């Protein structure tokens, strides 16, 4: 049995193709199709139901220290109204999940992957000291509005949205309903995530979809957009076998944490920051049209295995196949020629830097 | 000429021991926008059920299986350059292969149009 989000009936009304995803019945695409939905997010605005994601609040005097004991981001310097990307690490320096932490003034607001909900809540509860409370907000839904027109669509409804810069968050009201608007997303585009009471979600979604610039978009476009933007997907590109430094996420470990350590796996992670990791996550551009999907072996031009693709497919904006994967560091330089072993045949490809499509954030 | 259908949503236009094959509109719709087609070489022979090609949409790769045992006489090379044809005209221009049937009795195991339409309705 799969769970249904507050927008489930709307998805069906819109003719979405539904799939089971992390225990939820979610839209993978609408009649417009993945390409059109993807293009809407790049050129206008796309609306995604992201209510499957786990929303939680952390409260209490020791919340800063409790979080910093689990993640390598600097939480102490995260100002009210600011959001930060981080990850739970394990003692070996692997990644347990990635998440967004927002300083909501009197608490921290967390958004966690649906597929890791149970793990993450258990992990935090097992490590939180007395006096720090974790509350999951299953009463909330979440809508992502992504694309260059997101602000002009949302601001007439939530004026505060226009005042936010990338990775900023604020509370607001829509017709008396409290909402949280955060300027961030998973597409590489400007955009917002709006957290609101589940019972108010459908009305807001309909209002946004009523705008000529907005198209409903499903998990298919969400995946192709994030891949072109070079954003990692937990379970594909990052997991307990990959370190943040290998994954190119060193930027998310602020200076103070690098100096002080004090997070799980600090020994390995700090060593890799200093000396470089043995392998790196890179972008791969196949020369032909064949997409190289997760699991594809990456080899040198003369046939030696040097890594594996972790995400791959067709990039609708790039108009060509794109992949992300790990290669031994000596083969990670931009422009390195490699071979992708697709169905037993070597397909030439070139290492590139990520992202494939440059980010379009409002700084 | 008689048209047959398979449970894997392929069609065969059969004329004697020669057939043109492709995937049905229903299959193309289920796949979504096709971005890549990989076909086998002319002259290769396959048993019924063997993988004879791959069709990829933005999201996933799907294998194409030999609907009957056959030898490939001709493959539709235009699909490599314009895979979107599979969505536009799956049951005409976007045929995959012309094949020679090596066991015509296998046609008896396939569906006619009415039976196939019932399957997908």
Describe this protein's structure.
Chain A: Residues 279-357 form the Aminomethyltransferase C-terminal domain. Chain A: Substrate binds at residue 193. Chain A: Keywords: Aminotransferase, Methyltransferase, Transferase, Transit peptide. Chain A: Residues 7-256 form the GCVT N-terminal domain. The complex is a heterodimer of chains A (363) and B (121). Chain A is α+β, with helices and mostly antiparallel strands and 363 residues long. Among the domains of chain A are: 8-53 and 138-228, Probable tRNA modification gtpase trme, domain 1 (Gyrase A, domain 2); 278-363, Beta Barrel (Elongation Factor Tu (Ef-tu), domain 3), CATH 2.40.30.110. Chain A contains nine helices and 19 strands. Chain A has a six-stranded mixed beta sheet. In chain A, helix 2 (34-43) crosses helix 7 (219-228). The longest helix of chain A has 12 residues, at 198-209. The mean pLDDT of chain A is 97. With 121 residues, chain B is of the alpha+beta class. Chain B has one domain (2-97): OB fold (Dihydrolipoamide Acetyltransferase, E2P). In chain B, 19% of the residues lie in helices and 39% in strands. Chain B contains four helices and nine strands; from the N terminus they run βββαβββββααβα. In chain B, the strands form two sheets. A six-stranded antiparallel beta sheet of chain B has the order 1-2-3-9-8-5. In chain B, strand 1 and strand 2 (10-15) form a beta hairpin. The mean pLDDT of chain B is 96. At the A-B interface, helix 2 and helix 7 of A face strand 4 and strand 6 of B.
């Amino acid at each position: 049995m799969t769970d249904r989000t507050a927008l489930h009936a709307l998805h069906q009304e819109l003719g979405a193709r539904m799939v089971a995803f992390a225990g939820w019945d979610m839209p993978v695409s609408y009649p417009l199709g993945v390409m059109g939905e993807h293009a809407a997010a790049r050129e206008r605005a796309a609306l995604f139901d992201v209510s499957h994601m786990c929303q939680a609040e952390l409260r209490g005097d020791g919340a800063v220290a409790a979080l910093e004991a689990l993640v390598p981001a600097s939480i102490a310097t995260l100002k009210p109204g600011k959001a930060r990307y981080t990850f739970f690490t394990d003692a070996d320096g692997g990644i347990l999940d990635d998440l967004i932490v927002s300083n909501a003034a009197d608490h921290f607001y967390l958004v966690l992957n649906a597929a890791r909900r149970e793990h993450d809540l258990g992990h935090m509860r097992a490590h939180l000291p007395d006096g720090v409370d974790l509350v999951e907000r299953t009463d909330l839904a979440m809508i992502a509005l992504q694309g260059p027109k997101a602000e002009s669509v949302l601001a007439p409804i939530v004026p505060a949205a226009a005042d936010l810069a990338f990775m900023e968050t604020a509370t607001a009201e829509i017709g008396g309903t409290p909402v949280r608007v955060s300027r961030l997303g998973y597409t590489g585009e400007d955009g917002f995530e709006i957290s609101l009471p589940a019972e108010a979600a459908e009305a807001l979604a309909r209002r946004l979809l009523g705008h000529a610039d907005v198209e409903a978009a499903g998990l298919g476009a969400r995946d192709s957009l994030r891949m072109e933007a070079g954003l990692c997907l937990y379970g594909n590109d990052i997991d307990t076998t990959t370190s943040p430094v290998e994954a190119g996420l060193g930027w998310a470990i602020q200076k103070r944490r690098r100096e002080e350590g004090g997070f799980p796996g600090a020994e390995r992670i700090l060593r890799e920051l200093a000396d470089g990791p043995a392998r790196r996550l890179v972008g791969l551009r196949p020369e032909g049209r064949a997409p190289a999907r997760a699991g594809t072996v990456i080899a040198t031009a003369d046939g030696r295995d040097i890594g594996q693709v972790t995400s791959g497919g067709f990039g609708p904006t790039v108009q060509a196949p794109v992949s992300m994967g790990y290669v031994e560091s000596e083969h990670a330089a931009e422009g390195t020629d490699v071979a992708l072993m697709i169905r037993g045949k070597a397909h030439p490809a070139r290492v590139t830097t990520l992202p494939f499509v440059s980010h379009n954030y409002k700084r | 000429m008689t048209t047959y259908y398979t449970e894997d949503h392929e069609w065969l236009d059969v004329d004697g021991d020669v057939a043109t094959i492709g995937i049905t509109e229903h299959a193309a719709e289920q796949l979504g926008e096709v971005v890549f087609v990989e076909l086998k070489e002319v002259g290769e022979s396959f048993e019924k059920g063997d993988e004879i090609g791959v069709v990829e949409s933005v999201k996933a790769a799907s294998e194409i299986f030999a609907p009957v045992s056959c030898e490939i006489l001709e493959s539709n090379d235009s699909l490599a350059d314009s895979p979107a044809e599979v969505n536009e005209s799956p049951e005409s221009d976007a045929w995959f292969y012309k094949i020679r049937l090596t066991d015509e009795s296998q046609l008896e195991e396939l569906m006619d149009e009415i039976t196939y339409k019932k399957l997908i309705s």
